[in-house]
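// run 5 | inverse folding | seed 20
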């Protein structure tokens, strides 16, 4: 029975990595949900999710960068404040129940918004507001470090709903944003000591297979409609995790 459960976990892990990487995400919220369902120790879950995030988001970024959708101009103001904030968040272990529930509600509303048909599609993005970008980056970085995610699950909806990017541009920026925040957040956790599963190398290998294939299809094969559906599913998974498995 243990072997069967382990195989089911690995299959689901690959599926989560595929789905999340297709929209430029590392998959931390999905990994945390899986580990909660399969009874992983709490002290193992957060660093494991961040490490898997690093590998999968790096692959997703490379594919989306090659596809020509990445914008340094959009990325750097967000990362400038998010990276140090994620490190600070990784150092802290506050009672997080309230903000996890609030974030879960926000992601659920956003997922429903993406599922509903848009009245019109923007052909050109709105101009980014530098001060808002710096503030949003700091807030997302802090939250992502605290919760143990890369922050892309929060960043992508903001970029799209504010009109700063379309789905593929948001995926490209989110991928590198997640990579940087995950490294920073994991660095903060290392100051307190971290614990990994003895099967960590296997988890990384499985996640990479899902991440390579998912990010390739997202960057080069999926159209905007398919990506919108994928992002909606990802947001739903993340919201359910925060609302019911935190």
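// decoded
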């Amino acid at each position: 029975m243990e072997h069967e459960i382990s195989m089911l976990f690995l299959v689901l892990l690959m599926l989560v990595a595929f789905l999340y990487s297709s929209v430029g995400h590392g998959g931390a919220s999905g990994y945390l949900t899986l580990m909660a369902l399969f009874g992983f120790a709490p002290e193992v879950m957060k660093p494991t999710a961040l490490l898997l995030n690093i590998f999968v988001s790096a692959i997703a970024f490379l594919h989306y960068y090659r596809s020509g959708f990445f914008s340094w101009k959009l990325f750097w103001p967000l990362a400038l404040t998010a990276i140090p904030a994620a490190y600070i968040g990784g150092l802290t272990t506050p009672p997080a129940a309230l903000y996890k529930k609030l974030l879960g509600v926000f992601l659920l509303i956003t997922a429903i918004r993406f599922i509903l048909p848009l009245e019109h599609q923007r052909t050109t993005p709105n101009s980014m507001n530098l001060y808002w970008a710096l503030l949003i980056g700091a807030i997302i970085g802090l939250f992502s470090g605290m919760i143990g995610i890369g922050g892309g699950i929060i960043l992508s909806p903001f970029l799209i709903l504010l009109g700063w990017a379309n789905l593929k541009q948001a995926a490209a920026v989110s991928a590198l944003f997640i990579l940087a925040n995950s490294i920073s957040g994991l660095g903060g956790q290392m100051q307190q000591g971290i614990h990994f599963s003895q099967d960590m190398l296997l988890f990384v290998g499985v996640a990479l297979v899902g991440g390579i294939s998912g990010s390739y299809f997202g960057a080069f094969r999926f159209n905007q409609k398919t990506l919108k559906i994928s992002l909606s599913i990802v947001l739903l998974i993340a919201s359910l995790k925060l609302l019911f498995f935190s």
